[in-house]
Amino acid sequence: MNITIIAVGKIKEKFYAQAIEEYVKRLGRYCNLKTIEIPDEKAPENLSNADRLGVIEKEGKKILSKIPLGPTIITMEIEGKQISSVELSKQIEEYTVNGQSHLCFIIGGSLGLSEEIKRLSQLKLSFSKMTFPHQLFRVMLLEQIYRGFRIFKGEPYHK
């Protein structure tokens, strides 16, 4: 299985980078993982709606240019479907069984994803209606992918 994670923003804090490195290492036995970081656009607090949409569209075009050919696209959206770790594991297993050997998870910027990117998505996921820092969310996504593979393979981890 090939997994690409496209994420807007850079990992700045050392402790997040260390956690990401750990999950990348752990995932190495289950998949080929590639992470692509997209620079975020500057977005001051008091943006007009038009400026807000402009930022989202610019980030969307950057994301679009980095999506590899042929993967199943999974977007991370607050409005997305909330599923359990077991359900994510079953979804990964289903993709594998159906010959979908490349998953591309997309994490948007602080203002969300463009409509163009949302339309490309085959699965819209949400971890919560709460908002998380993007760096932390990337760690959480990697942990859930790792947990999903462990469950799928029948290995101890899920509690």
Automatic annotation (TrEMBL):
Pfam families reported in the protein's UniProt record: SPOUT_MTase (PF02590)
CDD domains per record: RlmH-like
Residues that, per the record, bind S-adenosyl-L-methionine: 108, 127-132
Localization per Swiss-Prot or TrEMBL: Cytoplasm
Domain of life of the organism encoding this protein: Bacteria
InterPro entries hit by this protein: Alpha/beta_knot_MTases, RlmH-like, tRNA_m1G_MTases_N
SUPFAM superfamilies on file: alpha/beta knot
An example molecular function term from Gene Ontology annotations: rRNA (pseudouridine-N3-)-methyltransferase activity
HAMAP family for this protein: 23SrRNA_methyltr_H
Function as written in the Swiss-Prot or TrEMBL entry: Specifically methylates the pseudouridine at position 1915 (m3Psi1915) in 23S rRNA.
Similarity field: Belongs to the RNA methyltransferase RlmH family.
Protein name: Ribosomal RNA large subunit methyltransferase H
Species whose genome carries this gene: Alkalibaculum sporogenes
